[in-house]
Amino acid sequence: MKLPEITSLKALLAKPFAKQVNKKMKKWISKPFETQEKVFQNLISVGVATKFGKDHDFISINSHEDFIKRVPIRDYEALKPYVELIIAGAKDILWKGKPIYFAKTSGTTSGAKYIPITDVSIKAQVEASRNAILLYVNETGNTSFVNGKMIFLQGSPILEEKNGIKLGRLSGISAHYVPKYLQKNRLPSWETNCIEDWETKVDAIIDETLHEDMTIIAGIPSWVQMYFEKINQRTGKPIGEVFKNFNLFIYGGVNYEPYRTKFEKLIGKKVDSIELYPASEGFFAFQDKQNEKGMLLLLNSGIFYEFVKADDFFNENPKRITIKDVELGINYVMIISTNAGLWAYNVGDTIEFTSLNPFRIIVTGRIKHFISAFGEHVIGKEVEQAMQEATKKFNVNMTEFTVAPQLNPIHGLPYHEWFIEFEKSPENITEIEAFIDVSMQNQNSYYFDLIKGKVLQPLKINIVEKDGFNKYMSKIGKLGGQNKIPRLANDRKIADILTKSIKAN
After folding, report:
1. pTM of the model
2. Of the candidates 408, 407, 464, 403, which has an alpha carbon nearest to the alpha carbon of residue 437?
3. What is the rounded CA–CA span in Å between residue 208 and residue 99?
4. Torsion of CA 53, 57, 58, 59, to 10 degrees
5. Which of 501, 484, 480, 497 is nearest to 200 (CA)?
6. Each residue of 275-319: pLDDT tens digit?
7. CATH number for the domain running over 370-504
8. Do residues 321 and 309 make contact, with C-beta atoms less than 8 angstroms apart?
9. Cis peptide bond prior to 358, omega within 30° of 0
10. Does residue 239 carry a pLDDT above 90?
11. CATH number belonging to domain 1-367
């Protein structure tokens, strides 16, 4: 009889703890500019003693203007020489001492990236994921999930080592920081989590979870979708029937909206959800309200934020601003300086503010993931919205999609080519094409002008076979993990492989 008492006590304690955390967060939320200034000064004061700080005259930095003059915006390629010194065993390079981890991520031009994580930055990551759930508890009063089982679909927790610094995927590193009070509730097992092959891993996770009382399911939507579909295939039941007490879905990494319709069908009932915005470089934001658009930007987590208008980013000296000067509805590139030693670092994401009191954001895409083959500068947010509208209008379920320019068609003008994997191929594909094209024209004036000016012809859809995107990701060795299909690209690397696959079938 003791176990139920313990679990109910856990639920009971969650509410006052959530209230306490909410009160603490309100303090910095009410003083956003002072909070960011304090973070900035703290970062600079530590950075002064590092090699990077000495190379960039940190001792003379007293203001954001001073910082701009001395520290240019960098991406990983530009920061790599400093990272290599750390990998070689040097200390006090980007931050005091040595990082305790490297988050290993798949790079583009440079191969693997090694993003430093320090003891203070990992604490901030862990605290942010905890606070996201506690603010949900404080808002909704829902604590029923704490008595059930929780699953976090993530990469392998097995870590390698380089000169005394452990390295692995961020999700694998995070697995080492699950609080003790959640350990008993958490699935899958350590052994299953260590399976590298993603499809094998998902099957093993299902074996472990199918007969459990799952209340929280968390992960990148595309991974969770595979998990749900396989359960559906095994049982013939929607997820809400298999896991009757499942009532909270936590996700991050990609925009959930294009998946929403499909998920609601797979689950068979409405469940609450919390959106997170974690990355190897830091935990930037999380959804703090169920009925407010956007995620709360975390201004008190050892990260100083700068923003550059996406339209100006590739100019010679783009203007860098702080939260004091941001505006609603503008597409910004987010630049960060962190307590892991990243300085004026371009994460590669573009965001938009949905609220300035408090500061809430949505992720709109990647600065490198856009289509501007003809000057249209189409971004991820636009294609995702068009797809979302189409799935709702025509009642179709999309599994995955990506978009690329077709510069040299066999017939007619160039066009945007959409590769879409549907749950069931729709019969009215020409109607869907026309609808999505109008949506794109309404959202993007440049695209509208190119269509009307007969520079482009309306978009075309290529239907990808079932599991076609998973097969593609498996082929390039990126199935599972933290890997995601780019929503759009300015080249045809992915498009050409998918085209060959379609023709072969």
Report:
1. 0.79
2. 403
3. 35
4. 120
5. 480
6. 999 888 999 999 999 999 999 999 999 999 999 998 888 888 899
7. 3.30.300
8. no
9. yes
10. yes
11. 3.40.50.12780
